[in-house]
Amino acid sequence: MASKNKNDIVLVSFNDTEVIGINSGLMDYKLAWCLNNALSLDFTRRDDFVYEGGAYPLYHCHLFENSPIYDLVAVKCGDKVLLNHKPRIDYLFLVRNEQYKERIDIIIQKINTIEGVSFAFPLDGHKGKIETILYDIEQYEVDMLTLERERNTAEFAREQIRKRDEYLGVSEE
Predict the structure, then answer these.
(1) pTM score, two decimals?
(2) φ, ψ dihedrals at 89, nearest 5°
């Protein structure tokens, strides 16, 4: 998380975010695939979420404008742990902008039917460290989307082609 000046006022609300803890021995890519099938999502792997010296696998799904946003974040990275929780969780499943809260219960039920998932449950109350993690994940996503926008320009594409051609020894004629 970016360092904060003691005079900075940070007003962050996660009232639109549901956090589900998942206990599972599945590898992150396998769990993302299972969630895609069980919940009709389209998770894509993003660059790892870097936090306090650990790089945690992150998957993101945003199907269309004004639809809920889903993230799957591994809680472990080698000997680093993003969040200690009792009972133990291996993944955070974040749901933002879900208009109908009863869908969260259905999502949890479906996650619990996935073979390899021991249990999934809502993490109530975004207090302390989890709120900090949510803030940093949100900042990461803003940075990620900004970078994607920059990469979707003609200038960026031309520069990448020029660099690749230079690397390959191809000259423009």
Answers:
(1) 0.76
(2) -120, 150
